[in-house]
Structure formats: C-alpha cells, structure tokens
Structure prediction request, 959 residues.
Amino acid sequence: MTIEIRAQQIRKRQNRRNAMKMAGRYCLAIGITLVFIFPVYWLFSISFKTPDEIFHHPPVWFPESIQFDNYGVLFKDGDAITVWNSLVIATVSTVFAMFLGTIAAYSLARFKTGGQHLGIWIISQRMLPPIVIVFPIFLLYVWLGWVDTYHGLIILYTAFNLPYVIWMMRGYMEDIPIELEESALVDGCSRWEVLWKVVLPLARSGIFATAVFTFVFAWNDFIFALILSRTEVTTFPVQVTHYFGGQSNFWAKIAAMSVLGTIPIFIAVAIMQRFLVRGISMGAVKG
Amino acid sequence: MDTLGAHRSPAKAFSAGRFADKNFKYLTIAPAVFLILLIGLFPLVYTLMVSFQNINMMEVDTSFSGLMNYEMLFEESRLWLSLGHTLIFTAIALPIELGLGLLMALLFLERLPGKQIFVALLVLPTMMSPIVAGAVWRLLFDNRYGPINQILGWIAGEPVTILWTINPDFVYPAILIAEVWQWTPFMFLILLAGLSNVDSAQTEAAEIDGAPYWLIFYKIIIPAIWPVMAIALLIRGLDLFRLFDVVYALTQGGPGTMTETISVYAYVQGFKQFETSFTGAIAFLVIIMLTVIVIYALKKMELVEK
Amino acid sequence: MARITITGLHKYYGNHHAVRGIDLDIPEGEFAVLVGPSGCGKSTLLRSIAGLESVNDGAIEIDGELVNDMRPRDRNLAMVFQNYALYPHMNVYENIAFGLRARKTPAGEIDKKVTDAAALLNLDLLLDRLPRQLSGGQRQRVAIGRAIVRDARLFLFDEPLSNLDAQLRDEMRGEIKRLHQEIRKTFLYVTHDQIEAMTMADRIVLMRDGIIEQQGPPLELFEKPTNKFVAGFLGSPSMNFIPSALVTEDGKVSVKFEDGTTLLLPEDRQSKYASQAERQIIFGIRPEHISRADGSDERVGVEKYQSVIDLVLPTGSRTYGTFHIGRTPVVAELQAHDVKGAGTALALLVDMNRAILIDPDTEIVI
Prediction:
C-alpha cells in the first residue's frame, strides 16, 4: 500500500516536472520565433501605416488602422509593374529551367551520362558568385543588345537555375524504381514515352517542389537584375533599392514594394512544407 | 513470317524513333549543358581574355597587354581589404549561425505541439529576397524612427541614437545581425532534419551505458550529423563569400570602403568605374580562389565520410 | 509464338563476366525455367532477351530474327517483374491497358482485352483500385494480367513469386502453369527456387557462374544429373554426398565408406564400374532413397546399413533422421514414427539403384 502511494507521488512529481519543462520549451520557442518574425511584422506594419505613424518618435508599434494608400501609390505611379516584370521573368525562366533541367536530370539519373564528373561539374557552376558570372554576361549582352530585355534576363535565370534543377531532379528520379521504366520499355514505350508517361508523373511532387524553389531563386535575385536591367524590365528587388537614399517619404514605398515581393514567398513556404529541407540543402538532406 | 520479320528488321532501315532512343541520354542532356556552358565556360574564357586587354572608361584597347591587370591586383590594397572584409563577415557569421541554429534545432527536436507552424514562421527570413531583408533592416536600424534603438533605449534606461549604417563602430554588427537573422533559420532547418535522422538506438544505448548528455552529444550526435552539418557549412560559406545584397542595401560598402566585400568591390570596379579589364582580372582571381576552396572543402568532407 | 535461339552469348559488367558463352534453344510454346543460385547470370540472360541489357558477344534470335540491337518495344514480348513494377499512379485497369495504349490499340479492343484478362485472373472487381490498395497476390495477378493482354509472342518472368508468402506462392505456381496450358505461348521463367523449377517447367535450364550446367525435362535432371552441382541443387532436402571408395570384393564392385562398411552395387551396374574399381569417389544418394529396414521383401540392389540416428527432424508426414558416416552427416527420409529420439540405433536400406557415383576431382557423374 505504502509503495503504491509513494509511486503515485513520484509519478505526480514527474508529470509536474515534465509539464513545466514543456511549458519552458514552449515559452522559449515562442520567444525565439517572435524575435525572428518581428522584422517581417515591422515591414508589414510600415506598409499599412500613414506617414505620421511611420515618422513618429517613439515608433508606433501597432498602426491605428490598416490602410492601403502606400500600395495604391505604387499602382498609381506604375511602380507596381516591376512586380509583374518579376512574375513574368521568374515564371517563364522557371518553366524553361524545369523542362531542360528535368530531362537532363533524367539522363544523369538513369544513364549516368558523363559519369560522376558531369554531375559534379554541373552543380559546381551553381557555386560561382553571381558577380563573376554577370560581368562577362553583361559585356556579351551589350554586344547582343540584350540588356534591359525580358529574354536576356529569362535566359540568364534559366541557365543559372539549371544546375539546381538538374541536381534536385536527379535526386527525385533516383528514388523511382527502375523496374517501372523497364516494364514500360517492354510494354512498348519509346524512351521519350517512358519519361513522359511513367517517370514524370511519379516525380511530380519533386517537380513541383523544385519548380517552386527555382521560382523563388529567380524572384529573389537582385544582382543580375541590377546589372542587366535599366528601365524597361526593372524587377521588384531593383525597384526597392531605387527608393533607398531618396527622401524619407520613400519608406512607405520600400515597405509596400517589399511586402508585394514577399507575399509569393509566404505562399511558397506554405505549400512547400514537406520539401523545404530537401530544397534548401540542395538535396543533401532528405528531411 | 520470315519475310515479315526481315521487313521489320531494325538494323537496316533508319527510323527517327530508334535514333532518338539510342541517343536519348545525349539528346536530353545536350540543351542543358549548352546553356550551362553559357554561364560556366563562357565567363571563364571571356574574363580571362578581357583581363589580358586594357579596356576601361577612357579607352578600348583590345591588344594584348600582358599581365598588367594582374600586377595591378597586387598593388591594389582596396581589393585585399575587401577580401579581408569578406573573410571577417564569413568568420563571424558562420559560427554564430551554426551555433544558434544548432541550439534552436535542439529546442525543437523533441515533441512540441504546433512545431510545423513554428518551423514555417522561422523559415520565412531564409526564403525572403536578401535585398528585401536588407531593406527591412534598413528600416529597423533607423536611428530615430526604427524600433531597434527604441528597444535598446528601454534596456539602457536612456535614449539610444546609434547610427547603425553610418557609425564605423556599428556597421559590422548591423550587417552581421541582418545576415545572421536571415540565415540562422537555414542552419536550424537543416540541422533539425539532421538531428531527427539520428538513430535513437545509438543514443539510448549510450544512455543505458551511463554516459552523460554532453558526452553523448559530442561523441554520438555531432559525428552522426556531421555530413549534414558540413553540407550546410559549405553552402553557407560559399554564400557568405559572395555577400552582396545585404551590404548593398545597408551600407553600399561604406562608410568609405569599410564594409566593402569582394562582390561589392568587383561591382564598383566593373559597373561604376568601368575598369572592364581590371574587373576581368578580379573575376578570374575569384574563380580560381573559389575553385581551390571548393575542391579543398569537398576533399575534406570526403575524408570525414570515410 | 516464338522460338528462342541463343548462341555464344557473353555479357560483362565491367570486369565481371556475368554470362559466359550460353547456347540455348527453346522451341515454340515451351515453358522453360532458368534456375540457379543468385549471381549465376539467369536474370542477366532473361534481361538480355528482353532487350534491357545489351550483350557483348553472341546472338539472340527470336523466330530466326536477330534481335540483339532491337529496342525492347520492337521485340514484342511481355515481362513480369519480381516486384511487379505496377505503375503506382494508375489504377488496375490502366495498368493492364498501358501496354496496349503504348501500342496504339483501338479503345474498344483495349476495353475488351482488359475485361477478358481481368475475368481470367479474378480481377474484375478491382479494376478501379490503385496498386497500393491491393494485396501482394492481387498485385501479382495484375502484373500477369498486364503481360497477357499484350498478345506477346514470348513471356518473360523474373522471379515473379519471390515476394509472396509461402502459401500464396504455391497457389500462384499453379495459376501460372494453368495459364501456360491455356495460352500455349513460349514462357521463360527465372527463379532461384528449385521447387518452382521442378513443378512448373517443361524444361529446366540450370545455371551456375554464367554457364548452363545442364538442361532438360525436370525429371531427367532430377534422376540423371550429369554433375554434383546439378545433383545437389535439385531436391529437398538435398542429396547426400558421402566420400567413399570403389572396391572389388569377390569379383564384385562395392562402395566402401570411411567407416569400413561396404555396399554392393546392383547387378546391372556391375559391368559399368568394373574397370573403375579401387578409386576414390563421392557416393550420392537422396534422403528418400534411404529408408528403414522393415525385414520384409528386400528388393534387388537394396543394401543394408546399420546406423545410429543422432538428430531427428519431424515434419509431420515424414521424419528426417541424420546419422554420420565418418564426419559426413547423412540424412534419411523415414516414416513419421520410425524413430523415437536421438541415439536410436536403426537398420537402414540404401537403394543402390538410385545412387550416383561422382568423380571427386571433376565432380562429374561417372
């Protein structure tokens, strides 16, 4: 009897200790998340503030009301077109990179084309600093007359994202059992049909995840766009920097433009949960 | 039957389908390789070529000018300083991101209701455009209207008016804070995945053997996640080596050239001062340095994997 | 309908010589089983015929047509894979129809063929299911269904039953054999399971290390193996191999074991081995040819051996008793109640008519 009571006491104490530990971890987790998310909150809050609220000392932590004037200005001045430019360029280059990269990845995954070296060479191209790539590309584009054009940026983003697409898609395709492809070959498919009817449908979640990441990379890029665009095809990150150093009333524009450029990222993160780790670690971690 | 067979004999007649199947692996990879050569081989060859000429804002002299630009590299202290700045940023940011990321990963490793939501929120900075991240911190760091000085003022008990992006004592912390804020979640996410994949039988066996937690951590957990950690460090190390966006947004390399990284320096030389040939030499130098670093890192990592 | 003729086939994987000069001729409509231990090259041979592997040397002909360089799709054959290789993104109907669609069969014809095949394989009610919603046996039947709708001239099976549990495997063996009897096409079936080979094959092709050790009807291989490997591979439990000597006593040839016991060879085999006397041999005898002596009618050529059983393995209908001759363990197939426990002394009968004598150096049956 006494043993039972003692055991109950111990259990109770342990439960209490576990609950406290959990509560402690919870507080810590919430605290850390707040610290990391605060800058994002601040960005959003500024975009909804009136000029008086933005330039108020001490800072206004919560805007009085949510008003969209700052966004309205962007659309009225035509600056919002830069978001559209980004959307077009990122989307089209993603489609190209996905198509070319996926079939190339299949070649690497299934036929080990070029042995180990070709694969390593391809991913190593991703490691070069953009400034090193963009400098000669700029000279080439000046010669071709491609500076400040859609196709100029689209081709560059396609090429720059290809190594990533190939590397990721190779990983996803290697996860597909080879017997399925062999079976399709025997069933009467050509190689192309095998890729189209068997491999791609089975890799579709990988294709989708890779496409979202590729889009995000093109969408987020600054340095290529800074150097290769002027006035015609300015993308939103470049537009954000155009507001720097100007009059302080550009703050609202910086914030509103940045929010417009961040919303697609929110969507990407929301739909990509399962593939986030694999995507950002270039396939090294199959989280 | 036989005649039919002979008629269909594959070796005899040409067929587009059979040709495509036979050369499938080359046909599928060729377009991609061609495009990658555009950003891989072409810049290498072209910068090398340009770097042996003498093209700048004043003149376009495409005759062979020898190693002139490379000799200039060694005399140009601003280049080596910018390289030094880059290394300082890397050397400080990388361990902080790794340490913070690891601590956060350990916090989130155990069961925690709503973990998915925390992870989704925490990953936002990493997925944002670096230039937007820089812009955000520009707003946060404002000496009068930004919340950072305000919060510091609460802590200090007196008004704080630090000029984060101008005061030489604070520009490095400013850039590093922005950088660490954006990329710690990257480390966190990868290390969390790595830690989740550690075989719990190993740690449990060590626990039963009576090993203290710190010993288990150093002798079992760290070696187990080392390959993942090494990849994360490599990716981040290369990212930091080409640090551009945040610096461009916050200080543009200033005050003076105090925070100029190698990428910012090359940008200024190539696109502000139009020292085309000299920039070619810088670019080529960077390519060479990076190739050496990557090969060394890969070798090192392979050794670890053995 | 197809006759397969293979001549001088060689296949290398890097330095590994997987198939080392195979000659094989399988007539139309035959059920041939390629069997052998893992790594013997049987799967490589099958995959070469399917066109999934290229060969380094030799010729593969189907109906007299050289197919070496032909794509798999042009060879008009069907294959069932070990892990079924069902397309996980298609339902049963689409899986079965896939090969027909790939060959641009008219829709009406596809529907009829799929429905017929489904009826034949009891898949009628499962046509809308996805592969992951099926049991192992059902998946297996879908894989077979996908092969038979194709009206292919040749059917290849790559260890199709090895992922099933024992009971299902027995069932499917019968179904595949019945299928062959119904459609009468050439079947080429790879397995490592000698029971599968024995029960299903018209012809067994027994392979080891990239070459064919022996081929022929199952009973011929079982009863007249040409070498020790074939003798030991077929049959379960496998044949006993007892080191011994051929001796001549009173003008009669006998087998002498290490323990000194001699067993007389039967009259009709005497002359054959007369010249071979006084040499070392391996004496091969199957467990079922060693039985308990019951004192009644002793048949011609059956010799007595006095044993001490040291291990008893009952299986229900039979009991296997192990005894030792020298250091060699020997298994005898006994009736269920012949022996009570280890240590029992037991008089056994050895059927010398069924024994084989093997050259210990070449391992070839004398």
